[in-house]
Amino acid sequence: MKLLIKNGRVVSPLNGLDETLDILIDNGKILDLKAKIETAADKVVDATRLVVAPGFIDMHVHLREPGYEEKETILTGSRAAARGGFTSIGCMPNTQPVNDNSGVTQFILSEAKRHGLVNIFPIAAVTRGLRGEQLTDMADLAAAGAVAFSDDGHPLANSQIMRRAMEYGRLLRALIIDHCEDKSLTEDGVMNEGRASYLFGLRGMPAMAEEIIIARDIILAESLGARVHIAHLSVKGALPLLRAAKERGVNVTAEVTPHHLVLTDTACEGYDTSFKVNPPLRSAEDVAALTAAVRDGLIDVFATDHAPHAAEDKEMEFDRAPFGIDGLETAVSLLLDRLVNANIISLNRLVEMMSVNPAALLGLDRKGRIAPGADADLTVLNLHKESVVDSGHFESKSRNTPFQGWKLKGLPVLTVVAGKVVYPFDD
Amino acid sequence: MEFHQKHLLGIEQLSPVEILTVLDTAESMAEISTREVKKVPTLRGKIILNLFFEASTRTRSSFELAAKRLSADIVNFSQTTSAVVKGESLKDTVLTLEAMNPDALVIRHSASGAARYLTTFCRSHVINAGDGSHEHPTQALLDAYTIRQEKKSFKGLKVVITGDILHSRVARSNIFCLQKLGARVVLCGPPTLLPDEFKSFGPDISYDFDRALEDADVVMMLRIQLERMQKNFFPSLREYRNLYCLTPERFQRANKNAIIMHPGPINRGVEISADMADSAKSVILKQVENGVSVRMAVLYLLLGGKDREAAD
Lengths: 427, 312
What we know:
The structure holds two protein chains of two kinds. Chain A contains 13 helices and 18 strands. Chain A is α/β, with parallel strands linked by helices. Chain A folds into two domains: 99 residues, Urease, subunit C, domain 1; 308 residues, TIM Barrel, CATH 3.20.20. In chain A, strands 1, 2, 3, 4, 5, 16, 17 and 18 form an eight-stranded mixed sheet that branches. An eight-stranded parallel sheet of chain A has the order 6-7-8-9-10-13-14-15. In chain A, strands 11-12 form a two-stranded parallel sheet. In chain A, a hairpin with a 2-residue loop joins β17 and β18. The longest helix of chain A is centred in the middle third of the chain and has 18 residues. Chain A is globular. Chain A starts with a strand and ends with a strand. In chain A, 59% of the residues are buried. The model of chain A has no long low-confidence stretch (mean pLDDT 97). Chain B folds into two domains: 145 residues, Aspartate/ornithine carbamoyltransferase (Rossmann fold, 3-Layer(aba) Sandwich); 148 residues, Aspartate/ornithine carbamoyltransferase (Rossmann fold), CATH 3.40.50.1370. In chain B, strands 7-6-5-8-9 form a five-stranded parallel sheet. A four-stranded parallel sheet of chain B has the order 2-1-3-4. In chain B, α4 links the parallel β3 and β4. The mean pLDDT of chain B is 94. The interface between A and B is medium-sized, with 17 and 24 residues.
């Protein structure tokens, strides 16, 4: 099966490409890359005026299966990813049962293979049952295919457990991803603490709750020579900590979500639960600082924290609704519109943050670049096409987006995984 | 007469003129309550549902009396007797009740934004009778009515609101209401219950009750809940009392003609001493009495409909 993609603007920062090229793909790998390839292929795609990037990787996705299939399944989440321009996703372990043993990891991988859409890389739990007490069999999980470890959503309160996870994880060069939240400071909180929460009468989640755990994790990683990745960093106060740590050579990286870059806490004014997310939408000052940190290259990765919830789960009082935003199908357009087309970051930098860096963090050495021999995972973008977000068209099983009706310029138009066009869909 | 709201969700979105319209209307309503037959036919045939998802005695019965004096039919609903305990969502519960064609829903709920949430799927008029820590608009309106009764004007008045500002819907509604009417508001309490950000809403803040009381014209005390102590917002009732209880000695710092207010229920001997609560300066029971007139005015202004426009 040969696929020929002609005349696209190929952007692959890892090997310094940004030029119009043809790409020949065979057997799931990139075979050739030249200004003009004249050869017979089973399928030819004309990418004139389109950008061809190495496949985008979202390392923070909640697929909900097994256990919460009313919110999302591996199939619907995969379709959402393909439509959203992602060729690979890392899925968080807070399913039921929790992905804390190789059986669950294998189940996820076999389902992903059966559906044959996007690559799914399971992220296993750090502790059994996400209870923060006993480490999982990390080596066994890694052997089964887990690419990283996280107790996402159930942050490790106990510093000793976190220390042991990082320390033991060195055995595997394991990446520990931490949702940084001191729960004792956010107890019962539903939105960012500050003027807006006081005005709306909603219980606050202070920025310091995030900063304290980020500081702790940096200290642990530095002391132990371990790796730590900060999930969905959202507060201004954490940025100097991260900058200083990186300057000292600490093995710490960080991701931000699109929603933390484009929405502020005042959006909670109408008590619309589609704006309820954890970490909460922060102040305008945080958003400005976060945007500057993205521009300056301090942040490594964009990730969606795709957190689908069924309509009936979100249709309730703000206090009672679950946290989460359905993000896979809006992320790329939001980032193209608000960052790339707004000249805050270059297209090159976007590709680094959405493909090169997540591939490196998760140890996916055949991904993150367009070069002969690399996996033929490609994200094709139309930078100029405008679209309007309509959750009615989501492939995700859920509709919990705060971006309904947003008009955005820039759209993923074609997704190729292992040499096969997985979006637009055949059906 | 100017009042252009479909719902009464909070004071924040009302104009000063609209607030004064409520107060003026409440004055004519007060007269009805002095008649031998305390009832007029104004809202005959209107149905009002009193939806109380949180315990309340005075607000619920005040709305009930207000509706009855205007000849509306009112149905009481409380959480314990409802399907809520069977796991029904707020939306389903309210939609079910609304299918019985009420004209207005009065809602008290522990979640901030609950009243506003109802307006996203209900067609009835919605009246917020207290939503979480957000707003309690009819309380602020009856407080303003009471202050006007005693002080005639709001201009230049110093109103000190003391207690658990952070969690108080009464405080929020009063801050907006009194400032819109021209009064100066000072908030007082320990820093844990009085975030600095409240300054950005307009009031001054003070942790020192004695100093805050100097030259005060209105001293409004808020109920302090025991559960705040359990969560370490303050160390003990003893210490709270020492710092923030309104006592006769402290009250001397206020203006000679200052009045004492409290939205109730009172913790005697905690935020207010018994002799202060019962003193001649206390208008606490007048607040309760005025509550009925103010709620009559709110029901009339929202539900009066064509009759009201004709009368204008």
